[in-house]
Every structure is written in structure tokens, then in C-alpha cells.
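Input set for joint prediction.
Command: fold jointly, output C-alpha cells.
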Amino acid sequence: MTSTASPPIVLVSGDEELLVTRAVAQAIEAARAADPGADVREYEAGALSPGEVAEMVSPSLFGGRRLLVVRNGQDAKKDLAAALLAYAKNPDPDVTLVVTHPGAAKGKAFADGLRAAGATVVPAAKLKGQRERVSFVRDEIRRNGGKCTDDAAEALLAAVGNDLRELAAACSQLIADTDGRIGADTVARYYRGRAEVSGFTVADAAMVGDVPGALEALRWALHVGVDPVPIADALADGVRTVARVASAGRGNAYQLASSLGMPAWKIERAQRQSRGWSPEGLVDAMRAAAECNAEVKGGSDDRGYALERAIFAVAAARQGAGAGQRGSGAR
Amino acid sequence: MSPVFADLVGQDEAVDVLRHAAAAAAHIIDGSPGQGMTHAWIFTGPPGSGRSVAARAFAAALQCATGVGCGDCHGCHTTLTGTHADVRFVVPEGLSIGVGEMRALVLRAASAPSGGRWQVLVIEDADRLTEAAGNALLKAIEEPPPRTVFLLCTPSTHPDDISVTIRSRCRVIPLRQPPASAIASVLASRDGVSPDVAQWVASAAQGHVGRARRLARDPEARKRREAVLAVPRRLTGVGACFDAASALIEAAEAEAEAAVAETDATERAALETALGAGGTGRGAASAVRGAAGQLKDLERRQKSRATRAQRDSLDRALVDLAGFYRDVLTLKMRAPVAVVHADTEQLASAAAEKWTPESTLRRLEAVLACRDAIEANVKPRIAVEAMMLSLWRG
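C-alpha cells >
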């Protein structure tokens, strides 16, 4: 009966709902695989009393595997946490205890105690950054028996958005629809459009003079329901950031960060964007941004058109002053 | 001159008309036919010329027992302090006067005067009437009750300020920008300001009586003005423009915050007490429940007031700045008029040597465009930044 396949204590640490659900489901599956008649019980930590724990983990008259899932471990009261930790020091090999914890400060002592008692930690933190999401998509497709290139994963992320559940569903749908080899063209056949476009996407493209890119991003942003006002604000913010960073001179982004009051990554990006801008051009661009701000707030009949014009004006301001001097830097 | 009209600085023609009308109004009450009184008046004039002062003084003269605005009788006194039962002042604190408020006021204005003279409704900043509120008021002005008088104050009779339908049913009293010498003499004689200080604050205030008084009395206001006038010298590059813009915005925010913080806290405390907060005993807790909505409503109104205070403060700064560029232009063209800011005359004449008249004019336009932009709800920071960059480039 005793199986070494599943660890006696599992701590699922993180707040990405999909990964938490998966980790719990996996533990249950493992228990069922070891013993089809395994007794699985799920509890909310906030509503569980220490007495119930004692009953759950004490040896059963009939034997058999048991699985105890305690959700929201951060809500465990002091006596419950003490009871579970005491049990964790001397676990029953026939019982698997799964505790989920969002990984934040609340109930941290409990999570750390479980870790110290030798719990197997399953990370389920929210994915940060594009790279992690790309690798999630690739892993997801690999898990389902397919193959996927990096650019296909990027394309899928752009089209579906950053919600992991939707991404997982999209991956399994793609596998079901195709032979399993997924390239960028496969994604393009089934998914079109951009799910997450903000004003900053528009502003970033406009500031480097990429008019087609900025217009495309603008159309998508308006299409998915971004209000024109934040887009106009982002445009002004883009000009302001570049102007302030450019006038601060060259320097280490981390040293400039405190004097400019901006995060270093923003400064680095603005330093890249500031190539090709002259002070004169920035004056024109800022004026265009201010006019655009008035227009999206009722000054113009068509707010989308006002934004489009502002993008053209920003690009023209960059070009008008930078013409013939490209490569030699600003001024 | 009748004492209630003494606060109107340099407006002799307007005062004559109003005194005549007040006398006529007194005749009407006596039962004899009076000429020169009507039921609706609009006071127009630049900011600081005393539109609301004129309206208030006229209201006092209407309620005056002697009919001339003596300033001493019960009617005059209570009107000037804002406690007369038949005089209602509408002073918008927020950005606009809504239709709900206006309907209630119109209803009230339709009642007969309890004091037996006139029912008076004074709307300061009638340019802040929303369209619907203006229409509600129009109904009352079109068919006025016999003893009701409407006094409206707006910057001008331009359709942007007051609808033409209201304008056409009112008598207009245009007030002019009081000359600096008149302001200076009032400050010196009535507020006890020394004559030389009175002279320069009067010219720096550009015809705004209240602003001149504030500059003469409040050292904080003088400091803020000096900071604003230092801006043109500080614009040495693109980065400096953004620093100057954010300093200006922050100063405006701080001034607005200081102006409203205390009232906000008192109002909130009063409302909470009225709703039963802090009470003890049975039912006290349930009384406060459901009060969140009302508190939120109060916060919304307070926010509108804070926004307005911030815009007003920014507008004062921009007017000062515009005055500086006007000085540069007058010095450049050797125009035979006095400079606005006597204390920065040297700076202005140095600038006049350096800049062409065209670029000075462009700068002046940039300041005025910024005022318009803020009026049009552009984010103040963005508008001011664009202006500063234009000022730097010229």
C-alpha cells in the first residue's frame, strides 16, 4: 500500500490560479493512481478546525490512502497551523497533505514551517515578463505532445493575451486542430488581432518614428475598447520622458533614475528612443500632444482621427528636425 | 456717493445707473411709478473689476430702508453680510452650477419677498451655468414674479459665457477694468497700505482689485508671484522647461490644497456627525451603515472644488506670466504705457533687447493658448509643459 511516488506533504506556493489548480489535480491523480479507492477531502483553511485534522490524519481502521487538501493556507488560524505543523514533523506515509498558499506575507510563518518540515514545494507564482510566458506556451504545447517555435508562442501571446487559462485553452485547441507542429503561420491561421494594446504601445511606436506600427497599435487599441484619453496621455508621457531623458545627457540609467524620478528601465528605453530627436522636434511634438489632449476631450468630432493626426505630427516633428542628421545623434 | 457702492472702484457710470435704478425701485414699493428699474440685470467685466461686488451692493440698495443704500440700516447690513432672508447668493464652488440646484433656486425666487421689498437672486459666475440650468433660469426670467430681481455676473455677454436668450431679457451693466491709480488710492485710503506699495501691487494685479489686496497683504502670494516671474529666466533648455512646468503645477496644487483642506475636513466631520458617526449605544452602528454613499458624494463635490481651486491658482500664475511678456513687448515697441510688473522691468528690458517682437508675441500667444487649453480640460501638466517649451523656443 505504501507508495513512495507521492510525497507526504506538498506546499503549492503562488497565486496563479491555473497552476495551483493543476498542482492540486496532479496530487489527487497521483494518489488515485496509487490507490483507486483513495479518500480525497478538500477543506478551506479558514473553516477547518484542528480536531478535524486530527481525525483526518489518524490511522484508519480500514487502511487505504487518503489525501487532504487544505486550500488558502494563509487563512489558517494559529491552532490549526500548529496542529498541521506538528503533524508535518511526523507524517503518516499513507496520507498526503496538500496545502495551497499564495506566497504573500499573510500566513508566511505557516508556509515556512511546512517548508522546514520537508514539504515538497510546487511553485505556482504568477508569470512575470514576456520570456516566462513564452516558455509557458512552449511547455504547454510540448506537454500536449506538440512542438512550437518561439515566434509562434509570441504570436499567440499577442493574439490571446496574458491570461494563463485562455493561453492553455488556446494551446490545446491548436494541438487538436493541427498535426502538432505549430509555427507562426499556424497561429496566424487561427488567431488574428491583438488582445492587449495600451496607449503606451502606441506611444512607444510613435516615439521611434514607426508610423505604420503606431497607427496599427492605435487601431487595435481603439478596437479593443481602450479610451482615447489614456492613449493621448500616454503619447504626451512618451514625449515628456524622451525630452527629460535626452536633456539629462548621457549617463548611467541607474544614476539618472533618482534625479529624474523615473525607473531605470524607463530611462534606458527613452535613451534608445531619443536617438533622432532634436530639442526643436520635441517642442513640436509636445505641442502636438497637448493639442491632441484637448481634441480627445471634446475639441474634435472624431477622437480616433485626432489621435492619428497626433501620431503623424509626432513623427513629422522627429523627422523634420532630424532629417539629414540621422546617425550623427541628436541636435 | 452712497456708502454701499463705495467698494466699486473706478466704476462711476455703472454706479450712477444702479443708484438711479435703486431709487426707482424704492418708488415702485411706495406705489408711485418709478423709471429705470427692471427685473433682470447682468454685470459684465474683466475678472477683479467687481462684478459680484456690484451685484451685492445693488442688492443691498434694493433692500435698503431709505432706498439709496445707506449701508447702516438693517436691510443693507444683512444683505452685505449675506444673511438677508430675501437675498440668495449662488456662489459656485465647483466647476458648474447644475440644473437641480437651479430649479430649487428658481422655485424659491418665485415666492413673495418676506421683508416686503424685493426677492433677490444673485448668481455669481453665471458663466458656470450648465445649459440645462440656464434654461431653467430662463423660464423664470421670461415670466418674472412682480417683486423678484435676478442679478447675474459673467465675464462678458459672449454666447460662450451666457446664452443669448438670457442675455436678451436682461439689462447689461458693463464694468470696466479699474485703472491702477484708482485701485492704489483705495488700497492706500481704505486698507492702510503704504502708497508706494499700493502703487506697484495695483499695477501688478492688472486691474484685479482683490488680487491687488491679496498681494499687498499676503507675503505667500507675493512669493508665488515672484516664483512665476522667475520662470522666463530659468528656461535654459528642454529639461529646464519640464522642471519649471512641474514646479508651477506643484505650487498650484499646494495652494489649492491649502485653500480647501480645512473646509474639506470640517465639512466631512459635520456630515459624519449628522449621519450619526461616533455615536454610542443601541442603533449607532446601523445608523452609520449606508452613509458611505453620501460621504462619497461629498468627496466628489470636494474634488470638483479642489480642481477648480487648482485651475484658478494656475490661471493667476499664467496671467502674471502673460503680463511679463506684455511688458517685454511694450518695452520693445517703446509703447507709451506703464509696465505691469514694475519689479521685473529690468529683466523685461533685457529680454526685449534679445528677442524679436514676433517671438515675444509668439510667447505671449503660448501663455494665452495654455489658459484656453486648461479651460478646455487638457491635463494642466501637459498644457503647461507644451507652453514652457514654446516659451523656451520662442
